[in-house]
Amino acid sequence: MQVGGTPARLVEATTTDELLAAVRDASADGEPWFVLGGGSNTVASDQPFDGTVVRVATRGVDRVASDDGLVHLRVAAGEPWDDLVAATVDQGLSGLEALSGIPGSTGASPIQNIGAYGQEVASTLVAVDFLDDGSGEFVRIPAANLELGYRTSVFKKGRRGVVTAVEFALVDEGGVSEQVAYPQLAKALGVELGARVSVADVRASVLALRAAKGMVLDATDRDTASSGSFFTNPIVSRAVAAELPADAPRWRLEPEAEPRVVPLGEEPAAPPPARTGAVKLSAAWLIENAGIGRGFRLPGSGAAISSKHTLAITNRGAATGDEVVELARFVQQRVTAEFGVVLHPEPVLLGLAI
Residues of the chain with pLDDT > 90: what percent? Predict the structure, then answer.
C-alpha cells in the first residue's frame, strides 16, 4: 500500500536460527512485536510503531523424501511466493500454478490459506514449522490441525507465533496441470472446465488475468499500489442470501442433500447431519451495487477504489494509512446500509482499525 510509519526496531532474519532468536527476544521484552513477510497484505498506520518488527528474509527450497508418490518441498518462510510458484512450474509440478502472481512470502501463505482461480494452499499443504509464542515450543503442525478455510486458519483465530517453513506435496505428471476449476481461467485458456493443460499455460493465463486487474506490481500503474482484494467475499446464511436481488452472484458452500428413498415397511435411517446452508457472496458485486464504482474516492483523499475493479483500495500516490481505512470504512458502511451484509477486511491492519 506504500503507507506506514517507522518501527522503533527492525530486525531482519536471514536464517531460521536468527528468526527464532529474534522472535523469542522480542516476545521476552514484553513490548509490541510484529512479524513481517513480504508486506503485501499489510496496511500500517503512519504513526511510528513503538516495538520490534521482525522481517522474515530466510530463503531455501528443499525436496523432502516421501513414499506417497508426490513431490514434497520444504520451503523457507521468507521465500517469495511467486518465485516458488515459478520454480514449480519450471519443474513441471502441478498444484500451485493457478496461484501465480500472488505477492508476499511463502510463510504467509497458510496464514489466510491463500487461493485464486480454483486453487488454494490447503489442497497441497502438508505441514508448517512453527514457533508458538504461547508455549515457547518449536513445533511441526500438520495441515489437518490448522483449521484451514476460506481465507482463514488457526493463526487468524489467535494462535500467535511465527511460521518458519512450509511443506507442500505436489504432483509430477510431466507438466500437466490440475483440472481447471475456475470459469474465468477456463475461458482465458480456451478450454472447458475440468480440462487439464500445461502448468506453463495456466501460469501465463493467470498472470495476464491478474495484470488486467492491477494485481501484478507495476511502478507505472497506481492501481497496483494496493493490498489486493481489500475485503473477503462474505459468507452468509441462505436466508440472508435470499433477501438479495436475484442477479447477486452467490455460491452454495454445500451441495444439496441427496433425496432419500425408504422402501415401504422399512424404518428410515437417521437423517444426515444438518447442513449450515452457508452461501458465499461476491464482495465486488455488493460494493458496485451499493453505489461505489471504479475509481471512487472520498473528497481530498489520496486513497481510491481501483479503476480496474471495485475490490481493491489503491494508493494514488500520497495516501496515508488513515485515508486507506477511512475509505474502507465508508465502503463497509455503504454495503451494510444497502444490503445488511458486513464486509470484513482481508489485509492485516497494524495500528489501524475499521
Answer: 91
Summarize pLDDT for 336-348 with one digit per residue, the tens: 999 999 999 999 9
Strand 71-76 with 161-172, pairing: antiparallel
Q: Which long-range contacts (CB under 8 A, 24 or more apart) does 330-333 make?
A: 330/292, 330/298, 331/230, 331/231, 331/287, 331/290, 331/292, 331/305, 332/231
pTM of the model: 0.89
CATH of domain 214-257+275-354: 3.90.78.10
Residues 343, 40, 310, 152, CA torsion sign? negative
The correct answer on CATH 3.10.129.10 for the domain covering 61-212 is no
* Segment 266-270 long-range contacts (CB within 8 Å, at least 24 positions apart): none
Structural domain boundaries of the chain?
A: 7-56, 61-212, 214-257+275-354
% pLDDT > 70, the chain: 94
Give me the active site residues, please: 151, 229, 346
> Is 261 a residue whose pLDDT tops 90?
no
Q: Which CATH code fits 7-56?
A: 3.30.43.10
